[in-house]
Each structure stands twice: as C-alpha cells, then as structure tokens.
Hints:
- The chain is of the alpha/beta class.
- Helix content is 17%, strand content 29%.
- It has 4 domains: 4-18 and 172-334, Molybdenum Cofactor Biosythetic Enzyme, Chain A; 21-41 and 148-170, Molybdopterin biosynthesis moea protein, domain 2, CATH 3.90.105; 48-132, Molybdopterin biosynthesis moea protein, domain 3 (Molybdopterin biosynthesis moeA protein, domain 3), CATH 2.170.190; 342-414, Beta Barrel (Beta-clip), CATH 2.40.340.
- The relative contact order is 0.13.
Amino acid sequence: MITVEQAKHIILENTQDFGVEEIPFLEAVGRVLKEDIVADRDFPPFNRVAMDGIAINYRFFEYGIRDFKIEGIQPAGAPQQSMENAAHCYEVMTGACLPDNTDTVIRYEDVAINTLMATVTIDKITEGQNIHVQGSDKTKEEILIKKNTLISAAEIGVLATVGKAMVKVARLPKVMIVSTGDELVDVNENPLDHQIRRSNVYTLVSLLNNLKIPAETSHIADEKSVLKEKIATFLQKYDVLLFSGAVSKGKFDFLPEVLNELGVKKLFHSVSQRPGKPFWFGIAEALNINNAVSTEKPSENKYQKNTTVFAFPGNPVSTFVNCLVYFYPWYKKSTEIISEEKTVILAEDITFKPNLTYFLQVKLTIKNGQLYATPIQGNGSGDLASLVETDGFIELPKTEEIVFKKGSVFPVITWKTW
C-alpha cells in the first residue's frame, strides 16, 4: 500500500499527450488553447473616441477660446476625417476614429450646441481626454492569449477580435466509463430488493463534463470471461478507461486479475486513504498484448496508443473523491492546464484515528473574505446522498495525530465554483 503523495506522483508521471485539433472558435469554451494568440494589429487600431461630444485642438482652449465652429461630424464606423481649420471642432461619436488635426474630446454634457457653434461650458479640461489611444491596450504582434490557457467567454471575445475563426486546442481523450456488478440495474429500471440502480457511471460522466470531456459508458456483469473480452476491446479503442467497482478482495472482484492477464501494467493497487483505499492504477502500453479471450492463438493486434486505466472502488463517495483527487490533476497536467491548489480553514475540531489520509466531506462558507470548511457527517463511502450537502473534500494528512484543530489550513478539492 502506498501513500496518497506517492500515488499522485506516479499518476502525474504517467500523463498522456492527446494531440491537437482545430475547431471553430465558438466551440472552444472550456477547451485548452494550443497556440499563442497574437494581435493582428494595434489595439485599439486607431485613436478611438471614448465619449459622444466634440473633438477640438486643445491649444485653442488653452488660449481661452470657448466657442468652436462645428466643421463636421465623425460617426463610428466611418473613415477618419480631417478637420481643415484647427480652431474649429468636429462632433464625434463613441467608437469613431478621432478626426485628424484634433487631440481632445469634450463630452456633450459639457458643451452647448447652437446651430453650427459649440460652446464649452466648463473651465477645465485635460489635453487628450476621452481618447482611447491607438495601441494603448496591445500592439501588433503582441501575445494576447498564451498557449495552454483554459478558454472562457473572455477569450472567445478576443479570438473574434483578431479574426481567429478556427483555433487550435488540445484534443479531448476518448474515455470509456465502466461499471461492474450483478447487483446494478439501469436508471430507468425498477430494482429488485437485492439490487440498486447504477449511479457511479453517471456521476463520473458529469464530473468529466465539468472538464468538457465526453465519455461513453458500459456495464459488465461479474463474469470473468465477459469482463476480459470487453476490456480487451476497450483497450484498443480508448485513451482512458475509468472503472467503478471490482477492485477490492471480494470473490467476484476480477478486475485486477483480468487487467494483469491483458498485459496492463499495474503501477499501484491500494492507497492509504479513506475513502477509496483499493484504488488501482495502470497503463496499457502500445505493444503486442495477448488478450487471452479464448484458447486460440493470441491476438496480434497492437494497441495504437497507451491506454491509462483508473480503477476506482465501487462505493459512490470513493469513486467521486478519487476522480477529483487523481483523474482531474492527471488530465490537467496531460493538457498542460495551469491550476493552483486551493486551501480552506477548518471551522471546527475533527477527530480521525486511523493513520490514513482522510478526504473529509465539507460544507464551505465565506466569512470576512476567507473560506471556511465545516465537516459533513456522512455514513461512510456508501452514503451517496451525503454528497448533496457537500461542497468539497479537505485533505487531512496521514499522521499520528488524531485531532485536527479548528483554524488549521488544509487543501480543498471542490467541484463547485468558489
């Protein structure tokens, strides 16, 4: 059995490169950018009027002139015009080019318009006011969005501004989520007294949706030959397999044995943590593997690429927390997403006796600008309903100490926005 820290290290040392694809920019929200986005021209591309009003040459105001003959109008979207008489003014609209031979904009609220004459009604203005100067935001060829940025609505606007109709992003992995167990029936079925509905696969699908990763699902009965045959097919087709169940020490927990027979390299099995201790992780490398589906000659099919296998324990809270703690960081490092560890303050004392890392369910609250975590008392890793009252998990370290004090700071893993 290894520690949580060792498990994290092994997983992050075995990331994948899924490649790059080019997609329409409006479909890129939530995806990882794989090219630097540069300015195709200055931003703004011209001296831009920032207020509706009049544009003047400041030195005439400085000379004491307050009445300016209106020489013309510069609307937004029209080519730049030029004021011929420097002592005149131009009416200008927000977003328009600043007319040539003007350098200051006075808003309409500070001007009285009388036929073709504009009179400034205030005594103090600043040279260059109300003008968004060309290149003051960004200059041509300057990087606007760095590669490996997680694209949000803000980035979409920038992509549109520079005319980036197609954008390069990290290709999404092909993922299969597999549940096992004869006790499980589908969500639209009525379970018998000894059965329960499948829930873990749909939880995992939703957790992956948070990362914009689509996933397929499958359910396999507790029959070794069927399990082996289907997994052999999945290994050749998918980048990632996520399992829920069949990894503990029960008589029908065939998954570790089957993965071994299929040539999947086990990197660890069992982590000193609660919940999720029986967690199994391994890699199916891109080489010839005897799938041993039958007694016939071993298959000579080659895996086209490595397949990463996360096999989580079947209890729902175990599946949930292991996906957040291990799969999320693995995917983010694989696609080079930069993320920061979040911490919270423990709101009350908690006692935990086993010398294991404990992922404690918590409710989060904000007080005086700081994030606090209040423990949620569930009924163990099988208590799926307790997750509804939970905002995240704090990671209490493996230690000889059994009391974790109120006011202590711990890492937090959350699937909600805080």
